[in-house]
Write a structure and sequence with these properties.
mainly alpha; 2 helices; 86% helix
Length: 88
């Protein structure tokens, strides 16, 4: 997943919903407000869902990087101990 403000799927879904909203307004102009509010709710929910997905993805990456850092730190400590033992 990329670190974009709006991912491709969010953009595509938003465009489709905007087109459907426009079609709904043309077909039924007396319900403009209702159709617009429903489309806005869908767009906001999709954006929110994408952001939570991105947060979860970032958490997994951070955990993986922490594991790698722990392993590297252990190896560095082992190397330090070995070098001290060789000096003695």
């Amino acid at each position: 997943m990329e670190n974009l403000i709006f991912t491709r799927s969010t953009t595509i879904i938003s465009i489709v919903l905007a087109l459907l909203t426009g079609a709904g307004i043309i077909i039924s102009p007396e319900n403009i407000t209702l159709i617009s509010v429903i489309a806005l709710i869908f767009i906001v929910s999709v954006i929110t869902w994408e952001k939570f997905s991105q947060i979860e993805f970032n958490k997994r990456n951070i955990n993986e990087l922490n594991k790698r850092l722990d392993i590297e730190t252990r190896f560095n400590n082992i190397e330090l101990r070995l070098s001290k033992m060789e000096k003695k």
